[in-house]
Amino acid sequence: MILAEIDGWEVVINGLNFLIPAGIVFGTTYYLVNKLVSEQRNIRLLELKKEQMHELTPTKLQAYERLTLFLDRISPDNLVVRLSKSGQSATQLRYELIQTILGEYNHNISQQIYVSNSTWRIIQGVKDQVIDTIENCYTTCKTSDSGPELGKKILTHTIAHNPQSIQTAIELLKKEIDIAL
User: Distance between CA 6 and CA 53 in Å, rounded?
Assistant: First the structure.
């Protein structure tokens, strides 16, 4: 009986002679395959990011352009010149100014997904500031004041109190474009 002649330690040593090299081969193979899969995943992620940037960049640029145009269109000097007419009452001009601002804002509201939250809050703040300026100037009008008189008050107030708010917001958009691209 051959089994009786084999010592217990010999069985363990012979088993280890097979298990240790097999473990080393398995560990090395596992490490190399894991590294290869990880590198392939990283390469694929970079390719996807590159595709997304290629597809998203024109849309994002268009959003910045539209928001810049929005800010320009709601600036009091542009609004008053565009909407003020002779024979118009202050109430009519106030209504048209606010409706134009809100219409422009609603038309561009979807652009917020392409800009940072802080930039969007600044754009909303500028819009609200322009509306507040219109409302504040309107409250100082007499019932007999004309639209052009309200327009003069709005322009005077804007020059005196916040002449650069829209330009500051546009500069912020430019900086964000530089960072995004």
Answer: 69
Contact (Cβ atoms closer than 8 angstroms) between residue 157 and residue 137: yes
Q: String of b and e for 33-44 (b: at least 16 CB within 10 Å)?
A: eeeeeeeeeeee
Q: Does the pLDDT at position 8 exceed 90? A: no
Residue 117 lies in a domain: yes
- Tokens 């997904």 locate to 113
**Residue 180 pLDDT > 80, yes or no?**
no
CA dihedral 24, 30, 33, 34 (to 10 degrees): -130
Residues 145 and 90 sit within 8 Å (Cβ to Cβ): yes
Structural domain count, the chain: 1
Between the CA of residue 113 and those of 71, 93, 116, 174, what are the distances in Å?
A: 17, 32, 8, 17
Taking the C-alpha atoms of residue 134 and residue 147, their distance in angstroms, rounded to an integer, is: 12
**Domain of 109, in residue numbers:** 57-180
Query: Alpha-carbon torsion 149, 152, 154, 160, what sign?
Result: negative
Sign of CA dihedral 29, 30, 32, 36: positive
The whole model's pTM is what? 0.69
**Can you read off the two tokens belonging to residue 68?**
């810049």
Within a domain: residue 164? yes
User: For residue range 119-153, what is the model confidence (pLDDT) as tens digits?
Assistant: 999 999 999 999 999 999 999 999 899 999 999 99
